[in-house]
Design a protein that fits this description.
Elements (H helix, E strand, L loop, with lengths): L3 H6 L1 H10 L6 H37 L5 H33 L19 E6 L15 H8 L4 H7 L10 H19 L4 E3 L4 E2 L1 H7 L18 E2 L4 H5 L5 E4 L5 E10 L18 E11 L4 H19 L3 E5 L11 E9 L4 E10 L3 H6 L1 E4 L6 E3 L1 E9 H11 L7 E2 L5 H4 L3 E2 L1
Parallel strand pairs: 2-6, 5-11
Antiparallel strand pairs: 1-8, 3-4, 6-7, 7-13, 8-9, 9-10, 10-13, 11-12, 14-15
Length: about 425
């Protein structure tokens, strides 16, 4: 959530930031509501002060035998006016909060200005030794490989649940589990994260805290009877670990990593490319989450991207890093890097990870603060998260890049101790 004080003091900066994010200009409306709200607060406080003063005088007047009937009548009128002001104030504050909850975060100054994904900037590529974008044999896509090797069954997954719910079989299931365990171990042992295994159903406050609702509520699954949401990413429960808490400044940066299944309705995606793993409603992901001091958060973002890159370099999977432009940033992000892995069969890059700095946007919604050691001042933390990584499209790149002309799949060396086998044939 944007800081109301910042909007009040920097209206043109906010206008420009919203325009760069292709978002509606809410500045005039927010300032109007805020002015009305503050005017009501002043009036209500004046009347409450008057009521308090008269209340202390009434016992003295009674002692002297004076008639207090008119004073009581006046105080009732004042009380009714205060109640009306408080009710109007509550409505204005609800309107203000609702407007701010639907308003996106502003992009950091280092983010390139652009309208859509076509204007994202490639930061770098990493290609394994002897890699080539040209293949000297017919490359099978992950669906063909999965069917031929008996490791993926999208048809039966559809029968069980519907489209977008993959079924891993045999060595495919083992390979998926191996990927998850390898990534968790790497982040724990090489990158000094602390592991959490969060709930996969969360309440409305948790979803609101990280910015998924109300803006993107139709993309989320919802269990109406219990008022719970299956998580779209482990970012939601892990970030909400510290909701409504004040963290000791000396403990920052806090780094968590956790595995979870993820569930997304993808309500606006019908008609888009949806075969196999390219667009699914359920997938697995290892998520990195950080709670940082504001002055360190952009260094923490760069190190988070590097942590995800280390996974791909260990797996020897070609990838590139994109710096997203303002128009392609997510609702909550101030800056984001996408990590895309190469699919030979699709002949294009596929997004496998996003690493974002939300600055204080989520922390303000979830009320996550920290206390500085020196000044004892309390401030909102900066929150960051990144996929480390999502397995669905990573599996596409792994199967397709590691296939042989005979249609076998070589298992990356770093996964051997987790799979117990080196080849899928």
């Amino acid at each position: 959530m944007l800081d109301l004080k910042f909007i009040r003091e920097n209206p043109e900066v906010v206008r420009k930031g919203l325009r760069n994010k292709n978002a509606a200009d809410i500045v005039d409306n927010v300032l109007k509501i805020d002015e009305e709200r503050r005017s009501l607060i002043v009036k209500a406080e004046e009347l409450k002060s008057k009521r308090n003063q008269v209340s202390t005088q009434i016992p003295q007047l009674k002692k002297t035998g004076k008639d207090t009937t008119e004073i009581f009548a006046e105080m009732k009128r004042v009380g009714d006016e205060i109640a009306l002001l408080d009710n109007n104030l509550r409505k204005l504050e609800e309107e203000l909060e609702d407007t701010l909850l639907y308003t996106p975060n502003l992009a950091h100054e280092s983010v390139p200005v652009g309208k859509s994904a076509e204007e994202n900037v490639e930061a770098r590529q990493w290609l394994p030794e002897s890699f080539s974008f040209e293949n000297d044999f017919k490359v099978l896509d992950h669906i063909e490989l999965g069917k031929k090797l008996g490791i993926l069954d999208f048809e039966r997954g559809t029968k069980i649940s519907g489209p977008g719910f993959p079924l891993y079989m045999g060595k495919g299931a083992t390979l998926e589990r191996a990927l998850i365990n390898f990534m968790l171990d790497s982040h724990l042992n090489e990158h000094a994260y602390s592991e959490v295994f969060p709930p996969v159903l969360v309440n409305k406050e948790s979803m609101k805290g990280t910015g998924q609702i109300p803006k993107m509520e139709e993309d989320m699954y919802f269990i109406e009877k219990d008022g719970l949401y299956p998580i779209p990413t482990a970012e939601v429960p892990i970030t909400n670990i510290h909701r409504n808490e004040i963290l000791p400044g000396k403990k920052l940066t806090i780094k968590y990593v956790g595995y979870s299944p993820c569930f997304r309705r993808e309500a606006g995606s019908y008609g888009k490319e949806s075969k196999g793993f390219l667009r699914v409603h359920q997938f697995n992901k290892v998520e990195m989450v950080k709670f940082s001091k504001p002055e360190n958060s952009y260094d923490e973002l760069e190190s988070m991207v590097k942590d995800a890159e280390d996974i791909l370099q260990a797996l020897k999977i070609p990838y590139r890093i994109l710096l997203l432009c303002t128009g392609d940033l997510s609702f909550s992000a101030a800056k984001c890097y996408d990590i895309e892995t190469w699919s030979p069969a699709e002949n294009r890059w596929l997004e496998a990870s996003s690493c974002s700095n939300f600055e204080s946007f989520q922390a303000r919604r979830a009320n996550i603060r920290f206390k500085r050691e020196e000044s004892k001042k309390t401030e909102f933390v900066h929150t960051l998260n990144g996929s480390g990584l999502a397995t669905s499209r990573l599996m596409v790149s792994l199967l397709e890049n590691y296939q042989t002309p005979e249609g076998k799949v070589i298992v990356p060396k770093v996964l051997h101790k987790y799979t117990g086998f080196e080849v899928i044939s």
